[in-house]
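We were asked to recover a plausible sequence for a given structure. The inputs and outputs are reproduced exactly as logged, with field labels preserved.

PROBLEM: sequence recovery
POSITIONS: 73
GIVEN STRUCTURE:
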């Protein structure tokens, strides 16, 4: 599951790039700099906040992700 956190436009010499961030909640083991596909969009894992263990081995990971390839030139 991905929850969108927000967008922030950043001006660069190549044009305006929009930094799109979200929160990823997954049961799959994940590390920083991994890339995931969600709803047809590619995202890069920026940070893994924590691993939440529920009832023994069952749990989930909580990550900050950045959408790749999103710009408004």
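RECOVERED SEQUENCE:
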């Amino acid at each position: 599951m991905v929850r969108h956190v927000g967008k922030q436009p950043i001006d660069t010499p190549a044009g305006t790039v929009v930094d799109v961030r979200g929160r990823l909640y997954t049961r799959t083991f994940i590390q920083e700099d991994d890339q995931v596909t969600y709803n047809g969009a590619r995202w890069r894992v920026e940070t893994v906040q924590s691993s939440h263990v529920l009832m023994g081995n069952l749990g989930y990971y909580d990550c900050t992700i950045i959408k790749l390839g999103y710009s408004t030139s």
